[in-house]
Amino acid sequence: MNPDKLVICPRCGSDACYVAEVNQDISNHFCYGCGFQSNTLMREGELIMEEQMEILPELYKDLRHEDKNRQVWFPSTINLPTKGMVFANGSTSKNWKWAAVKSIEVLEEEKEKYPIPGKKGKFYENRMDMTTMKMFEEHDYMEALSYIGVLPK
Ligand SMILES: [Zn+2]
C-alpha cells in the first residue's frame, strides 16, 4: 500500500487534495482546497452513487461534480461533537457557501435539555452553538476548518 499523499484536485486545481488508499482498488479523496470529496467508486451507474443520491441534501446533489476521469465529487460534511460542523449551505449551486458552527460545552444547569436518545439519564456534554455560525467562500474551506479548531489558525 502506498502512503497517503497530496495530489492536484481535479475539481479546483489546488494541490491540497488528500488521497488515502482504502485498499488496492479503492482510495478516498478529500480536497482541503475546495472542501469536496470523492472516492474511486463514485461513478455514474455504481451502487454507491445511487445510495449517495438518496441520502444527500438537494444542495449537495446540485453541486455534484464529475471530473475528467468520470469520478463524481460532492461537498464534504464535517460533524465533530467536540469541535463543530462545516457543511455546504445555501439555496442553489450558484448561491451557497460553507457554514461553520462551533460546538460548546453544555452547562450543568441546562444539560436536561440535551438528553442522549436511548440512554436514560445520559446527556450530551457538547452541543452545536448555532449563534456562532459563520459563512466562508468555497475556496476558503480551510479557514472554515480553522474557525472550528480542526486546523490550526
Ligand atoms: Zn478541490
Features of the shown structure:
153 residues, 3 helices, binds zinc ion, six-stranded antiparallel β-sheet, five-stranded antiparallel β-sheet, alpha+beta, single chain
Radius of gyration: 17 Å
Question: What are the secondary-structure elements, in order, as H or E?
Answer: EEEEHHEEEEEEEH
In one word, what is the shape? globular
* Relative helix content: 10-25%
Strand content: 25-35%
> Which ligands does the model contain, each kind named once?
zinc ion
Q: What's the rounded overall pLDDT mean? A: 94
Describe the largest sheet: 6 strands, antiparallel
Describe this structure in words.
The protein has 153 residues and is an alpha+beta fold. It contains three helices and eleven strands; from the N terminus they run ββββααβββββββα. It has helices at 47-55, 58-62, 141-147; strands at 5-7, 17-21, 27-31, 36-39, 65-66, 72-75, 78-80, 84-92, 95-105, 126-128, 134-136. The longest helix is centred in the middle third of the chain and has 9 residues, at 47-55. The radius of gyration is 17 Å and the shape is globular. A hairpin with a 5-residue loop joins strand 2 (17-21) and strand 3 (27-31). Helix content is 14%, strand content 34%. Bound molecules: zinc ion.
Would you spell out the secondary-structure blueprint of this structure?
Blueprint: E1 5-7, E2 17-21, E3 27-31, E4 36-39, H1 47-55, H2 58-62, E5 65-66, E6 72-75, E7 78-80, E8 84-92, E9 95-105, E10 126-128, E11 134-136, H3 141-147
Antiparallel strand pairs: 1-2, 2-3, 3-4, 4-6, 5-6, 7-8, 8-9, 9-10, 9-11
Residues 9, 11-12, 14, 17, 31, 33-34, 36 line the site of zinc ion.
